[in-house]
Each structure stands twice: as structure tokens, then as C-alpha cells.
Design a protein that fits this description.
- The complex is a heterodimer of chains A (about 100) and B (about 450).
- Chain A contains four helices and two strands, in the order ααααββ.
- Chain A has about 100 residues and is α+β, with helices and mostly antiparallel strands.
- Chain A has a single domain (about 10-95), classed as Winged helix-like DNA-binding domain superfamily/Winged helix DNA-binding domain (Arc Repressor Mutant, subunit A).
- The radius of gyration of chain A is 19 Å and the shape is elongated.
- In chain B, α1 (about 15-25) crosses α2 and α5 (about 215-220) packs parallel to α6 (about 265-280).
- With about 450 residues, chain B is of the alpha/beta class.
- Chain B folds into two domains: about 5-100 and about 175-190 and about 355-430, FAD/NAD(P)-binding domain (3-Layer(bba) Sandwich); about 195-355, FAD/NAD(P)-binding domain (3-Layer(bba) Sandwich).
- In chain B, the strands form five sheets. In chain B, strands 1, 2, 3, 4, 5, 10 and 20 form a seven-stranded mixed beta sheet that branches. A seven-stranded mixed beta sheet of chain B has the order 12-18-13-14-15-16-17. In chain B, strands 6-7 form a two-stranded antiparallel sheet.
- Chain B contains eight helices and 20 strands.
- Classes of the chains: A alpha+beta (about 100), B alpha/beta (about 450).
- The interface between A and B is large, with 41 and 43 residues.
């Protein structure tokens, strides 16, 4: 794999990459802001007691499909865990922190 | 990457491409396998189980992936795309683009520390965008190679991945690179896509959360699926009523897809049986025009599904809407009783048609890079399908798997071995094998 000038410092390389991909960086920044906010809200909600996706959607005002997608992501990375069922819906709770 | 001189180039790292590569390499030929994704495995590695045996797909595919990666006669080129193919006297000159992973694969151990540290969560195409991974990630748990890849479309270039990498594998200086392969023959194994949901406006045009495609259901049924169970994507409910709409994109003149996609009846029956196991209380309905169970053991499989309580309703689904609770309402003409009825389900799966993969090398009605003519159905044209089904119009180029047309996994593997046999005979006949052969494994 070809490399650029390896004499550039790490910070300079990252800065250069940010200027090379301005739209992608802008999109990623907006996404990060949204996801941080969503994670804070959902984690606070799931910390209280196990809840379903529709309950979380109703409490946060985030569409249920989006809540489910984010809950699936948080479950994959060990941030929330399943905690039984409530009718036809799985319950989720915040994972215990080490 | 240095330029390569090989006997056969396989384009596509799905089950057909891997089988062709292994068959040729086992005969002592030098083979390169080019895959545009960061991992080989193709569609099959995303599936749950195969029909009619219900064997685990991953258990069949991963040993082949591993065999390809470790075969001494196979050069595995992942995250690469074919740019152009130029014919010369004894073979082909192929230009390949190596996309940057921003990870030094010789150092990366696949530990995923970078993935856990990355702050951006993005939709995972491996899970049909219903699951997620991070902007830098190992593509999936059984990926080959088990190496991380960074997606510049979602990267903040914050450098957190670099800070946590224990082997200093992150390399932000990587650039796209082009290199050349000289090959005596080519095997096209470029695979398939599904007809886009957007094209079926009467079925919600992909806007109804609880109307999904069959590959999404495959992911729900797979042990590594996005939810770890079968849930509907609209609100996370465990569905108690699931419907399949057959021929939703095949045998459809409005889409100019007049052919039968061959596998939809069987995968719908297979999924229905698997759902019956995962959700024993669920009612499963398959709306069909006619059931086509053409393979060995397939008819018995169909009869078993009926005996298990799967409801088969003969009728054509006219439209799908949803109620206020996001439940899909299916309007169907039940041809056996001559009535039009509306039925509400929790989840609907559209058995979409199979079309050629949206590979850049096949885009535009003719193969741009490889310059192969396509048939009227859009798949690679084969002049003599009855006598030489893997031989294309261009000498030295062969085709296999669903790049030829819709087919199931069994037929893909058979056609892969057939294409390898054709390529082997061609290379031997033309006497232009590369000089530095390694010993045939099974000579």
C-alpha cells in the first residue's frame, strides 16, 4: 500500500484527512451528536428498570424503529442487556458497569 | 501490492467463487480470488440454514473461507475491485484497485479494540442495515481475513482507534492503489442482488417498517443476527403472525423480470419451518401463485412444512398497507375460492426476485470491465447453456453461480466445479500456465 509522506506528524495526518473528507466528517459529527444524546436518554431510561422498545420510544419521543436499531447496537457492544419479556416485547436494561 | 502472474482469476468471493478457486488450486493452478468486500463469504455467510437439510450455513461456509485463505496456491485479494480487463495473445491483463483499509493487515490481530473504542455507530449491511457496527470494525465475527477496516464515509478521524490498537496496526496514510494481474483465464462469480423493495409500490415501496426482505429474515434467524431473536423492526415486537408474499419481484412483467427466481419457494418454506421452531405459537402464512419444489428432497420438505401447520394460501397479493399499530394489512385475491380478502399480520416477508449483483463490472447493461454480453434477463450470456453452461462468449472467461442466473446453493457449488473444470481444460489446452507452479495438493 502506498503511503503519504511519513514525516508528517500524526496530528497533521489526521488534520489532512479531515480536510480531505469534509462532508463525511460533517455527517459523522452530526451523527455522533445525535447518538450521544440518544444513548444518554436511553441509558437513563433503561437504568431505572427494564423497559420495552415502545416504552422507550414513548418516553423519549424517538421513533420505535430507531430505538430498536440503537438498542440492538448497544446490546452488541454490551451497554444494555435483555431482561426477560413483557408480553410480546423483550425488556432491556442497562448493563452493570465494571 | 506487487503485480501477479497467475493461471486463473476468480472475480467474487461467495460460495461459487470460493469453490471454483479451491477446485483450481487443488489441481496445482495458481489462482487469485478478488472480492470487493473486506471479507469473503458472499451472501451465504449471512444466511441461517440451508434447505432442505437445515444444515447451518456458517458451518458449511467458514471452513471453505478458511481453506481459501490458507491455500498455498490461492492469492486472496479482499477489498479490491476489478478496474479493467485487457485481452492479449495468451490471456488477460487485469487492473485491480486495492481500496485502503487504513489498517495494516500484516499487524492487525482482529482483537476489535479499535471497534469498541470508536464513537460512531453505523448501519451494518451484513445485517441488512438492521444491526450496527462501528466506523472501524471487523466486518463480522467469522470474517476472513479477520482484520479491521475503517469506513472513511463515517470516520471523524479522531484517532481514538490508533491510540488503543495494541499492535500499532492503524495506518492513516494508506491510499487507493492499483496493481496488475496477468491471468490465463477468468471465472466470473459476481453473485446476485434482490429486486429493490422500492420498485414494488403496491407493497409499500420499502417504506413500511414491518414489511421486510427475505435476507433480513435470514439474519433474524441466524444465531449472530442483529436482535439475537426474531423481532419485527418497526417496534421490537415478537411477531405472532407472519406472512410470506411469493413472486414479489419475479414473474413480474411490470418490473421486466419475467423469469422465476427458483429459490423463493424453498427459502420461504425453510424460513417458515425455522420460525415455527423459534416462535412455536406464531401463525405463518405463505401466499403463493404456485409452489415450485424442483430439487432432491424439496417436495418432501414442502409437505413437512404443511404438516407442521404452515398455512399455504393460493392467491396473488394485490397490495400491502399498514394500520395505526404498524401491522401490515395484506389484500389478497384468494384464487381457490374466488374472493378478495384483507388479512392483518405482524410481519410480512416479500419473496423478492433475484437479479444480477450490482457490481460495477456488470453495471450498465454490459460488462464494462470484462466486456461480456448479457442475456435479456440481465445475467451473463451463455451461448450454449445446454452443453456448456459455464462458457461465455469470450474465450478464456467462464461464469458460475448466480452470475449465470438464479440458482440455489447446491447448484451454485455444482456450477462452480463445472466452471473450474472448464477453466482447467482451457488453461491446459492453451499451454500458457505460469511457470512457477507449486505442487498440486492432490496430484
Amino acid at each position: 500500500m502506498t503511503v503519504q509522506n511519513k514525516t508528517l506528524s500524526r496530528g497533521e495526518i489526521l488534520k489532512h484527512l479531515r480536510t480531505q473528507h469534509p462532508q463525511a466528517v460533517e455527517r459523522a459529527q452530526a451523527l455522533l451528536k445525535e447518538q450521544k444524546h440518544m444513548q444518554q436518554e436511553l441509558c437513563a431510561f433503561f437504568r431505572e428498570k427494564p423497559r420495552t422498545v415502545p416504552e422507550a420510544a414513548q418516553a423519549t419521543g424517538i421513533p420505535a424503529s430507531k430505538v430498536l436499531w440503537f438498542v440492538a447496537a448497544m446490546k452488541k457492544y454490551g451497554i444494555v442487556v435483555e431482561a426477560g419479556m413483557c408480553g410480546d416485547y423483550p425488556l432491556y436494561k442497562k448493563a452493570e458497569e465494571n | 501490492m506487487d503485480n501477479l502472474r497467475i493461471d486463473a482469476l476468480i472475480i467474487g468471493g461467495g460460495i461459487a467463487g470460493m469453490q471454483s478457486a479451491l477446485d483450481l488450486a487443488d489441481q496445482g493452478f495458481q489462482v487469485a480470488l478478488v472480492e470487493r468486500e473486506p471479507s469473503i463469504g458472499g451472501r451465504m455467510i449471512t444466511l441461517s440454514k440451508v434447505f432442505p437439510t437445515l444444515d447451518c450455513c456458517s458451518c458449511i461456509t467458514t471452513p471453505k473461507m478458511s481453506a481459501v485463505a490458507h491455500h498455498p496456491n490461492i492469492h486472496l485479494l479482499t477489498y479490491c475491485e476489478v478496474q479493467s480487463v485487457r485481452e492479449h495473445g495468451t490471456g488477460f491483463d487485469i487492473s485491480i484497485l486495492q481500496k485502503p483499509r487504513y489498517v495494516d493487515v500484516s499487524k492487525c490481530t482482529g482483537c476489535r479494540d479499535c471497534e469498541y473504542e470508536c464513537p460512531i455507530t453505523v448501519p451494518s449491511p451484513f445485517d441488512r442495515n438492521l444491526g450496527a457496527y462501528r466506523a472501524i470494525r471487523v466486518p463480522f465475527s467469522t470474517a476472513v481475513p479477520q482484520k479491521a477496516v475503517l469506513d472513511p464515509e463515517y470516520c471523524l478521524w479522531c484517532g481514538k482507534c490508533e491510540q488503543v490498537c495494541p499492535v500499532e496496526a492503524i495506518d492513516f496514510t494508506q491510499q487507493p492503489e492499483t496493481f496488475n494481474i496477468e491471468a490465463a483465464s477468468i471465472v466470473m462469480a459476481t453473485g446476485f442482488d434482490l429486486t429493490p423493495m422500492e420498485t414494488k409500490k403496491e407493497y409499500g415501496a420499502g417504506k413500511l417498517h414491518n414489511v421486510i426482505d427475505p435476507l433480513m429474515m435470514e439474519r433474524f434467524l441466524a444465531p449472530t443476527g442483529p436482535y439475537g431473536r426474531v423481532l419485527r423492526p418497526g417496534d421490537g415486537k415478537e411477531p405472532t403472525s407472519i406472512a410470506y408474499v411469493q413472486c414479489a419481484g419475479s414473474r413480474d412483467e411490470t418490473l421486466n423480470i419475467t423469469y422465476c427466481s427458483r429459490v423463493c419457494c424453498m427459502y420461504a418454506i425453510k424460513q417458515a419451518m425455522l420460525i415455527s421452531g423459534a416462535l412455536p405459537m406464531a401463525e405463518i402464512t405463505i401466499y403463493y401463485m404456485d409452489i415450485r419444489t424442483f430439487g432432491k428432497g424439496y417436495e418432501q420438505f414442502y409437505q413437512n412444512a404443511k404438516a407442521m401447520g404452515v398455512e399455504f394460501v393460493r392467491g396473488k397479493v394485490a397490495s400491502i398497507k399498514e394500520d395505526s399499530d404498524q401491522n401490515p394489512i395484506v389484500k389478497v385475491e384468494m384464487t381457490d375460492i374466488g374472493e378478495i380478502v384483507e388479512r392483518t399480520h405482524d410481519l410480512v416477508v416479500l419473496s423478492q426476485g433475484i437479479i444480477p449483483a450490482s457490481s460495477p463490472i456488470l453495471r450498465g447493461g454490459s460488462t464494462q470491465a470484462v466486456s461480456l454480453p448479457l442475456g435479456s434477463d440481465g445475467f451473463i450470456y451463455v451461448p450454449a447453456p445446454d452443453s456448456a453452461p459455464c462458457v461465455t462468449e469470450r474465450a478464456g472467461i467462464f461464469v458460475t453461480g448466480t452470475a449465470m442466473g438464479p440458482m440455489d446453493i447446491v447448484d451454485s457449488i455444482i456450477s462452480a466445479s463445472a466452471a473450474a473444470a472448464e477453466a482447467s481444460a482451457y488453461i491446459r489446452e492453451n499451454g500458457n500456465r505460469v511457470e512457477a507452479h507449486k505442487e498440486a495438493l492432490y496430484a
